[in-house]
Write a structure and sequence with these properties.
Two copies of one chain form a homodimer. Chain A is α/β, with parallel strands linked by helices. Helices cover about 40% and strands about 25% of the residues of chain A. Chain A contains 15 helices and 18 strands. The first copy, chain A, is globular. The interface between A and B is large, with 89 and 82 residues. Chains A, B: InterPro entries: CinA, CinA-like_C, CinA_C, Competence-induced_CinA, MoaB/Mog-like_dom_sf, MoaB/Mog_dom.
Amino acid sequence: MKLEMICTGEEVLSGQIVDTNAAWFANTMMEMGVEVQHRVTVGDRLEDLVHVFQERSKYADVILVNGGLGPTSDDLSSEAMAKALSEPLIENVEWREHMEAWFSKRSHPMTQSNLKQAFLPQSAVMVDNPVGTACGFRVKLNRAWLFFTPGVPFELKQMVQEQFIPFIRQEFSLKDKTALTKLLTIGHGESLLADKLETIDLPDGLTMGYRSSMPHIEIKLFARGQHAIDKLPSITEQVRSRLGQALVAENRASIAEEIHARLNGSGLSLSIAESCTGGMIASQLISFPGSSSYLHQGLVTYSNESKVKVLGVPAQVLDDHGAVSIETVAQMAKGARELLDSDYALATSGVAGPEGGTEQKPVGTVAIALATRDGVKSQIVQLPRRSRDLVRSLSSAIALDMLRRELLGEEVVVDYASFSRSA
Amino acid sequence: MKLEMICTGEEVLSGQIVDTNAAWFANTMMEMGVEVQHRVTVGDRLEDLVHVFQERSKYADVILVNGGLGPTSDDLSSEAMAKALSEPLIENVEWREHMEAWFSKRSHPMTQSNLKQAFLPQSAVMVDNPVGTACGFRVKLNRAWLFFTPGVPFELKQMVQEQFIPFIRQEFSLKDKTALTKLLTIGHGESLLADKLETIDLPDGLTMGYRSSMPHIEIKLFARGQHAIDKLPSITEQVRSRLGQALVAENRASIAEEIHARLNGSGLSLSIAESCTGGMIASQLISFPGSSSYLHQGLVTYSNESKVKVLGVPAQVLDDHGAVSIETVAQMAKGARELLDSDYALATSGVAGPEGGTEQKPVGTVAIALATRDGVKSQIVQLPRRSRDLVRSLSSAIALDMLRRELLGEEVVVDYASFSRSA
């Protein structure tokens, strides 16, 4: 099966937004063992769309088309496909009724422009979109099935999972069983990981890939066919042992998800005091439903005054050692834990940049502490200063890794190959 | 001039990395008034590359090709282009000497595989790359100049700025001036905005586009040519007046950026107490360098205990009205403001979902308050319950909009067309 993708939309073509839908889709397909072999991105010009639908349908078996199903005048996918097929657009009554029900349920008036969303090429097979007003559909042209999906990411995702994948499974009887294991690392560059792992002898059908998604690099072990699937556990074990401390989670999207899974329903409680990470740790945990069961509070004590008044950091400690120091961050963690008598507290304080660095504490210097009922463990690290966001996200990941190690009864402060330790 | 882009590389095609080069290049060109009209992404298969070079060179005047100039076996751009031209690859002696000097300056041995990087198609014109070992080049095929650039982002950027832009300026005497105005909205669906704006009569050369980037919808007015540029202010004014309260910022990426710009250096100070938004407001502001000048603290008081102990919300208020109530959120804002005597404080408390809703307070019910030195203004809204993240990001945007209105001396609590108000 030859799978291609066509991304539509001036904003994607013109770089107003980075095309995360394309990356998500290709990655999702790859995890199923299907490669996207070609991708075209076009703007909102009718003739360009018509041409690309006609052209690519000669080469591909299936084309996922993304975007252009909305109610506005620059949403042209349906019209262009009808033109490419030399067919009229016909109102799909089922979808118009679906939209009427959608708006009436929400007590919103349906606008004139929404009506357009029910018009599909004559030969189109409707594809349900339970979470939006953009109607999906598929049509056959030349060699290809063209499968039209909305540009809104969560609508696309739901339609791909619930409609597109079952469709291609059935239409192209995908035979080979596949399996995937994902290992999440922090603190090791890709070339270092490659050096560690590339001498592992992979059996036929088993491939290893890397995906950089800061603050993580993910290692993916993909097995196609029963033979490779049978070997997956032993290869995974080899990778695990070579990764050592770099490995922080398996089959999770982030270390925050790993911590959430460990704390949710555990009866344990956590407070967080953040300076340079500025709410990032709390926000990452709170994105998971159920986080209220363990997260007492997250205090973004950005100013020194706030560290003193809210967390009870002694003013003398700030005067003597500065905000970015082992001493201050330890007091922050201690204060945050004691406020609500939480089981654990994490604290961060650092120089996220681009300004504010000094010779002694350059941009990227970050102090991180974990307080438990037994005391405080803390460290100060020197992170790559490439960007403010990178410093913040690496700091968050290291803080969460300290808590993860504590929960596992492991040593809390360890060396990460790519970060140096400040004095 | 018809400009296209060809992105090569398995890791981009397969979603292992998001293609930020493509977005950067298109955006850089658009700000020069040149649109990228078509983009193809292909993997590292020789025949696919040959085919796409031959095919697209029939339609475009200039094609920027990105990637595939490295030393490894999957770097095939040069070889594929030679094949597409039916030409041999010839060693470019100047570039080999350049590489030898490059490696000797760094005391690294030049590997055998680097030698390959000096081989270009016979008719190629070399394009200098002062910051790497990948040699740029350009060739003419059919209608198009194909311009080959390295995949490493900073090498691409330097080559585009120093070589590509001067080349197209000279080759295609670029005439039309362009201008762009971006208007950021909240609380109005795209179809509602379209209904409001589509009857505006746009002069030739002026186009209007929408970009949905939750919690915002952005309206873009793009003018090409002096005639359209002259009309841009009056059209922008018409759009402004039709948008009314929906408009929250101009030429900004987010309302957080607008608030940052208004508070940074103003001498005013802000504290934030977040429950359902869970650090999102603070984290958004902290992503801007300089936010420490006005942001006192952000308190994620997720548990009731934390609301009482840290913010001083009376336990009786929580008992009588619940955490998600006008009364509680007003006390949260008041407490957060008073802790460090900030000029302003924002507070949120709501049901982000997917669990935790009740008949009286379903998922999406959010109470939001702004405290000033003169008192507290608060409201409770019913947001679309599509996802936990959406509820949180809309709540953050409304909170920041309340502060924006206060800073402008406008009414703080207003109706948003797409959100209903709870009793």
